[in-house]
Amino acid sequence: MKRILTGILLLLMVPGLSGCWYAAAAGAGIYAGFKAKEKGYGLQNPVTQEKKTPDQETDKE
């Protein structure tokens, strides 16, 4: 009886845990995209970096 309950519990937990992995992976992707955008990269094919004018470079200092 204990073995059956353990099996049922395991079957019910696996889908729940897999959803957490999807959420964690999505969060990591969002964070990486945000950091890339801060450094001037865009989401286009091919991935490029924006060219900065001398005025934009002095604004950060």
Description:
- This protein has 61 residues and is mainly α.
- The protein has one domain (2-59).
- It has 2 helices and no strands.
- The chain has helices spanning 2-38, 54-59.
- It starts with a helix and ends with a helix.
- 0% of the residues are buried.
- The model has no long low-confidence stretch (mean pLDDT 76).
Question: What does this entry show, briefly?
Answer:
This protein has helices at residues 2-38, 54-59. With 61 residues, it is mainly alpha-helical. The chain has one domain.
Radius of gyration of CA atoms, rounded to a whole number: 22 Å
- Beta strands, count: 0
Tell me, what's the shape? rod-shaped
Task: Characterize the biggest β-sheet.
Answer: none
**Number of structural domains:** 1
Structural class: mainly alpha
Average pLDDT figure: 76
Order of helical and strand elements: HH
Write the layout of secondary structure elements.
Elements: H1 2-38, H2 54-59
